[in-house]
Specification:
The protein has 255 residues and is mostly helical. The chain is built from twelve helices and no strands.
Length: 255
């Protein structure tokens, strides 16, 4: 048993009142070089799926960029490190000039409050991920428990070495629309605990709880955090595409 009340899943109109992970309290404790390991040990399935898609395809569509960049921001990864990481990954399949004109670097700066209205964008919680902007063809954002069909979800979970009996249990929870309970079961199975000990409401909350259980708080690795390096300059930070009047919280298509 997960030890969680079956009434737990958030419903539309239910407010999440925990940490909004908008601050940089943990800045410098997680580095980009650790993402490969952390994606397997401490990322919730939604962020693990985006990370693996990005690593395999060197591209993220708009919804994935928004969801993942804000998650990384919530982990405390600096803006310059995320800029360099995005540029390095995207430029495995596009040249630097094309990247500079794509608007992707501008988006990172915008989400960190350095462009546009300079508002501090908050990482998405489970309610927003589950109930807004469902993924379409080619997208990898959203909640796997909500947005994957049963066959794809089963294939993904088995690929992540979740035992078949637990996969069936998670699929049963999903069929009853208990998406967050299914995600909590994923947490319990991957951390080998009977009860996760928390009510899941936010991907960054999932990450911090994982690190607490693993005894790391935030695992900074044997070498610790490497100082941020400025991302390569492309003359001006603003892209050549016209983003005037665009709110990067909107579901726009900038691919």
């Amino acid at each position: 048993s997960s030890g969680i009340n079956a009434e737990w899943p958030l419903r539309p109109g239910t407010a999440y009142v925990g940490d909004d992970f908008s601050g940089q309290k943990s800045e410098g404790q997680v580095s980009v070089s650790q993402l490969s390991t952390l994606s397997k040990t401490s990322f919730p399935p939604c962020m693990r799926a985006i990370y693996e898609h990005f690593t395999a395809n060197h591209h993220l569509k708009h919804g994935g960029r928004l969801q993942f960049c804000l998650f990384l921001k919530g982990l405390g990864i600096s803006m310059e490190d995320v800029r360099a990481y995005f540029r390095g990954e995207f430029c495995k399949q596009m040249d630097g000039d094309a990247y500079g004109k794509s608007g992707h670097d501008y988006m990172v700066r915008h989400l960190y409050g350095k462009e546009g209205k300079r508002a501090d964008k908050k990482p998405y919680g489970c309610l927003k991920i589950i109930t807004t902007s469902p993924p379409s063809s080619g997208d990898c954002h959203g909640c796997p428990f909500k947005h994957y069909d049963a066959d794809n979800l089963e294939r993904k979970l088995l690929g992540w070495k979740i035992p078949k009996v637990q996969v069936k249990e998670m699929l049963g929870l999903v069929s009853e629309q208990h998406y967050q309970i299914a995600c909590t079961r994923y947490f319990e199975v991957t951390h080998q605990v009977q009860d996760g000990g928390f009510g899941l409401n936010h991907p960054n909350q999932y990450f911090l709880r994982s690190q607490e259980l693993l005894g790391n708080k935030v695992n900074v690795g044997s070498q610790g955090y490497q100082a941020s390096q400025p991302a390569p300059s492309t003359q001006n930070t603003a892209p050549d595409v016209d983003l005037t009047g665009i709110d990067l919280d909107d579901d726009i298509n900038m691919d």
